[in-house]
Amino acid sequence: MTLASLAYVSSAVRKLNDEELSELLANARVFNAREGVTGALLHHDGSFFQYIEGPPEGLARVYGRIRRSSKHKGIIELFQQDVESRIFSVWHMGFAQAPRALVQELANAQWLSAVPSLQTSPSKSDGLKLLLGFWSGAK
């Protein structure tokens, strides 16, 4: 099965309270599950970073929904690339509050250097290394 992945950063139009953030997550998880998309969302004080992966058609529908959302602005796509296997296979949308410095570092990281070999190469992209390092400590 062909799989694709992408990562982006964005900013909330306004600060979301806990209830609004929980509702956003619940709705996204249902939609992502229906589309076969998995991934992780990091948030800090209105700044978002998200990495998602799945079948190209499902990923396109999820990302289209994200781009149309009125809850955030300034979407910057960091990369979009085919991958051999999933990294977040059990998370339709894993979520964590992250330090501001990490969200900024992910936004500025090198993502494209090794994307085609995310799972098989010891030279994973700097962005992926940062994300996986944080995620392994956040679970």
The CATH first-level class comes to Alpha Beta
Assign the structural class, choosing from mainly alpha, mainly beta, alpha/beta, alpha+beta, or little secondary structure: alpha+beta
Instruction: Report strand %.
Output: 25-35%
Average of per-residue pLDDT values: 82
The profile of the biggest β sheet is:
5 strands, mixed
SSE order: EHEEHEEHH
Q: Which percent bin holds the helix content?
A: 25-40%
- As a whole number of angstroms, the C-alpha radius of gyration is 14 Å
CATH topology assignment:
Alpha-Beta Plaits
How would the global form be characterised?
globular
The tally of strands reads 5
Termini gap: 28 Å
Q: List low-confidence stretches.
A: 114-123
Number of domains: 1
Give the spatial strand order of the biggest sheet.
4-1-3-2-5
